[in-house]
Amino acid sequence: xxxxxxxxxxxxxxxxxxxxxxxxxxxxxxxxxxxxxxxxxxxxxxxxxxxxxxxxxxxxxxxxxxxxxxxxxxxxxxxxxxxxxxxxxxxxxxxxxxxxxxxxxxxxxxxxxxxxxxxxxxxxxxxxxxxxxxxxxxxxxxxxxxxxxxxxxxxxxxxxxxxxxxxxxxxxxxxxxxxxxxxxxxxxxxxxxxxxxxxxxxxxxxxxxxxxxxxxxxxxxxxxxxxxxxxxxxxxxxxxxxxxxxxxxxxxxxxxxxxxxxxxxxxxxxxxxxxxxxxxxxxxxxxxxxxxxxxxxxxxxxxxxxxxxxxxxxxxxxxxxxxxxxxxxxxxxxxxxxxxxxxxxxxxxxxxxxxxxxxxxxxxxxxxxxxxxxxxxxxxxxxxxxxxxxxxxxxxxxxxxxxxxxxxxxxxxxxxxx
Length: 418
What we know:
It is built from 15 helices and no strands. It is mainly alpha-helical. Helix 6 (145-174) packs antiparallel against helix 7 (176-194), helix 6 (145-174) crosses helix 13 (316-343) and helix 12 (292-312) runs antiparallel to helix 13.
């Protein structure tokens, strides 16, 4: 008993002293500042320039998520072939260059250039994100992976609290140009932080690597050969369809359903962030007792009921409470997904597995995002939230067969990864 009690603090200490974890957390700090300033400022700016046009607002989310569907697998395949650290640094540098280009375009051209900033950032993230997952697999011991992912997700929760407040302040005080400038500086600082990552190990020489098309085929065979990855993909599709319906509609839930000013969006996100921090801390205490697949299914089930209730509610405080519940279980979903992928994927396939599963989620989400604006006009916002909750419940049903599985899922006899 004494040995176990001493091992836990030592594990947490060794995780936080890990050079890779330190660099990633600092990089995430700068990225989240830039991303939240971008998200809030562009949302308010487009809403103002289009006189509250729901379709234009939904296009912001399409600009952010559609490139993920198109470039995710390409980025994942190259992440498996390229040096991971160099890939991440170059992606941040190119994002910064694109942001400053958008700032220049706005000065001499159309305000619609703001969509380009989101578009380019989303494309480059499809090369950077799987490279980061690959480094996580290499530099974090397997028994600390789930704990490491919970710390990483807590960083996102902190910015759910501070990000909207900062973004609203920057936009209302200084305007869209300053907001875009802050984005560019944040990407540069993130790239500087990543320079402290451990050096990339020597990858296979180009002549020794299989053809790109063979790598792509091997990635599909690898995912198809593992039942846990197939079922996770089914859950991704259902969740994407549900989330896409309501992703662009949050501001209309506040202004139309609850009758509050648009500034109240920052308080909804603030409550959501506080709940994520609390949920993330509690999730860490149950990580050794609950399998990641059950953690994921629990989060999706509770989130589905919260979505339905939020759409039906007309009481501000009750809806705010439901927003807290939704944020409280979100770490269960995020930690469950990332842990299942890392524990059940070989390091050489991390990029391609991410590149296959993410388009399933993002592609289905983009489809319903495009439909959400017209559907809101046609059937109102209430049915959208109810239908979104039903999609999440379908995702839970897909994951139920995985409950019997314990520990890491081993390769199946019919594996044909190549």
